[in-house]
Design brief:
With 340 residues, this protein is of the alpha/beta class. Helices cover 42% and strands 13% of the residues. It contains 13 helices and nine strands. Bound molecules: S-adenosyl-L-homocysteine (SAH). S-adenosyl-L-homocysteine binds next to loops.
């Protein structure tokens, strides 16, 4: 079965379809596209959740500032470097420093942390995911050694965005950040949650159209999952099949993108990440955070892998990748480093 997504109507059709044959054709096409650019390789990113302090109050997120039930933590520069060392020993060549929007991590504090990692690991990739900052700040962090930046746009519809975030946050501000990051020279990751409250198929179509315009290097797509202490704590989780279709459509629209099989998908369903690989994903992000803080980085409830040692996470991911006929690849996995 041919998969034609050249018009918005066709895109919308594949966003919505629950027809098993159409879905399988979509996943098959996504696999073929991924295979053309990346073969069967799946790349590893060691994830370091370095702070759960956040000045924002996003209605969906468990580490929003209004949540009094989270014990807050912040890794020290030495602890962050230790996580990188542990990751490097496991063979990871990308470190992802992710956290809430924590004002403590000023440029004056981040720059030495990044230079320290850079000094010890000159050839590793450093990815940041720490929210919205000024263009000057993004440039300073880039100059200090960061190569990539993950900042999901969350939803490309401004009205929908304002139902997921408090008034002080806005879609144009988010987009300004993404544009700045790209211009500075980062490999940039956008992305969105599937099945977030008030989301419609038209919003998801807008997400795809936005991604096509932005041409990001990475796209994080995972289901919305409720977190009990947030305003959306009693909302339903995003649907698995819809999340997989969005990953596959993203692969078809952005053939060379690096697409993670997200932890949220693994939390939603035991084989969620495996299914994502079969729908065109080609990245996994095993956790490198110290065991003692894992549970406190609770963006949503029932998050998996909070009790596993980093080495167990790597072995577990490798097993999952191999079980699906793919090949674990520990190289940096840069966007541009692939054959045409
Ligand atoms: N503060 C940073 C990164 C941390 S949150 C930033 O703003 O980018 C990383 C991602 O987790 C968010 O972009 C969001 O898409 C996702 N997330 C947060 N809460 C979630 C929830 N309840 N369910 C699913 N994903 C969630």
């Amino acid at each position: 079965m041919q998969v034609d997504i050249s018009t918005d109507a066709q895109l919308l059709h594949y966003i919505i379809t629950e027809d098993p044959a159409e879905m399988e054709a979509l996943f098959q096409a996504a696999r073929a596209t991924r295979e053309r650019y990346y073969g069967r390789k799946v790349y590893f990113r060691g994830l370091i959740e370095f702070t759960n302090y956040c000045k924002n109050d996003c209605y969906y997120c468990g580490i929003r500032r209004g949540n009094r039930n989270v014990a807050r933590y912040r890794l020290t520069p030495e602890e962050i470097l230790d996580c990188c060392r542990r990751g490097a020993a496991l063979g990871y060549q990308t470190f992802v420093l992710q956290g809430g929007e924590d004002p403590w991590f000023t440029d004056a504090r981040m720059v030495p942390i990044l230079s320290g990692i850079r000094r010890e690991f000159p050839d590793h990739a450093i990815t940041l995911s720490m929210g919205e900052r000024s263009r000057e700040s993004y440039a300073a962090l880039f100059d200090a050694g960061a190569n990539r930046y993950l900042l999901r746009h969350e939803t490309a519809d401004a009205a929908h965005y304002s139902r997921l975030h408090p008034p002080e946050m806005s879609l144009p501000a988010r987009m300004r950040c993404l544009r700045d990051l790209k211009e500075i020279g980062y490999q940039v990751g956008a992305g969105f949650m599937v099945g977030s409250p008030f989301q419609t198929p038209a919003h998801l179509l807008e997400d795809l159209r936005f991604l096509r315009r932005l041409q990001p290097h990475m796209v994080g797509i995972g289901p919305f999952l409720p977190q009990g202490d947030t305003p959306f704590g009693r909302e339903a989780a995003g649907p698995l099949a819809l999340t997989l279709r969005m990953i596959a459509l993203c692969r078809l629209l952005l053939p060379k993108a690096l697409l993670p099989a997200t932890t949220a998908l693994g939390t939603l369903s035991p084989l969620g990440r495996e299914r994502a690989l079969q729908a065109g994903a080609n990245v996994v992000m095993p956790n490198l955070s110290p065991l003692g803080v894992r549970a406190q980085y609770a963006l949503y409830d029932n998050k998996i892998c909070t009790g596993d040692e980093a080495a167990e996470c790597r072995a577990c991911m490798e097993r999952r990748i191999l079980s699906q006929g793919f090949v674990p690849d520990l190289s940096r996995g840069d966007y541009h480093g692939i054959s045409e």
